[in-house]
Amino acid sequence: MEISVIGYRNHSKRIINILKKNKKVNRIICYCYKKKICNKLNLNNTSRKIIYSNNFNNIKKTKYAFISSPSKTHILYIKKLVKFCKFIYCEKPGATSITNLKFLENLSQSDKKKIFFGFNLLHSNIFKFYKNFLKEKKNGKPIYINVNISYGIVFLNKFKNSWRFKNSSPLERITGHMGVHYINMFVHLFGSIKKIKILEKGVSNKRIIDTSNINILFKNNIYVNIFLSYATPFSENISFYFSNSILHSEKNYTYLLHPRDTFDKFGRFTQGKKKKVILHKGGWVKNSLKNSINFFINSIIKNKTSNLTDFKKALITSKLIIDNT
Predict the structure, then answer these.
(1) Nearest to 121 by CA among 289, 235, 320
(2) What is the pLDDT of residues 256-273, one digit of tens each?
(3) Helix (H, G, I), strand (E, B) or coil at 133
(4) Looking at residues 21-45, what average pLDDT do you find?
(5) What is the C-alpha separation between 310 and 119, in angstroms, rounded?
(6) Which of 39, 80, 93, 223, by CA, is between 20 and 30 Å from 276?
(7) pTM of the model
């Protein structure tokens, strides 16, 4: 199988390394529009599977493509490839403006079915666990979910000039870069959103945005709050509050606190018994990118097109962020 990748560094490099190890992929053509960089990459390349090219015609000749260039260019490459490629894996978001979202909405159904969006959390073990846990309905009704994701990268010199703090589009800032994954995951878990409020601010510097809070009310009356920051100490945790229990996920494990009616010796409410229910060493997103890519490769092999419902939810997620920031 021959696959093309738009991009060659950062996230693109991670994708290339995963593809390189996949036995079903025998050739990877990586697009880099700058000829000098392309020549240097080929000179230093030690993999027989990989070739770097600055000729876009070489990309159009492949049936299968990954788009992992900067977010604002995703729509440009979708437009260039959708008539040539049989399957396209596009990193989120597919579009960063309402105009470009409308272009995707107006694609024919056959073209929409070609496009898979890279929402990796949907291919994580933690998402599968949450989905099954909610189906069981053993621990009461879900009422409220609280998400805290933070890394203090804004204070590191190597991130001083990062694109994360220079983009005007909310889909290229922290809300879109990190928050879009969690909004999309909860849309898949809980359905349609009734209300959403997004607040962004600069903690380290008022001229940049490094922190975001996303407050959501779903139509089924479930509340979700997502706090994201590049300006606070490391934190990765998700808590589901049910009517009879609390499900809490940290980096390496998820545990259950239950039942609700747990009392101390004075008859006062106290924390329920703690029970570990799933381990996810290395973080709940570990292997999610690999799983997402393997899902795409397997879809190619089985000639199975993308799910139109997933396509629609990907656009809804992006539109929610654009309309509310």
Answers:
(1) 289
(2) 999 999 999 999 999 999
(3) helix
(4) 93
(5) 10
(6) 223
(7) 0.93
Q: How far is residue 55's CA from residue 52's CA, in Å, rounded to a whole number?
A: 9
54 and 155, same domain (yes or no)? no
CA atoms of 53 and 30, how far apart (whole Å): 6
**pLDDT 10s digits, 81-102:** 999 999 999 999 999 999 999 9
Sign of the torsion angle spanned by Cα atoms 302, 117, 229, 240: negative
**CA-to-CA distance for 259 and 116, rounded, in angstroms?**
41
* Other beta carbons within 10 Å of 108: 9
For the CA atoms of 52, 53, 58, 60, the dihedral, rounded to the nearest 10 degrees, stands at 90
Distances (CA, A) of 175 to 95, 232, 247: 14, 15, 25
Residue 91's nearest CA partner among 114, 109, 108, 68 is: 68
Give, in order, the Cα–Cα distances in Å from 115 to each of 119, 200, 313, 323. Answer: 12, 30, 13, 23
Amino acid identity for residue 5 in this structure: V
- Asked if residue 267 and residue 155 are part of one domain, the reply reads yes
Residue 86 and residue 99 in one domain: yes
Pairing of strands 253-258, 211-218: unpaired
Q: Any idea which residue has 């922190």 for tokens? A: 211
If asked whether residues 211 and 236 sit together in one domain, one would say yes
Res 241 pLDDT > 90: yes
Residue at 323 is within a domain: no
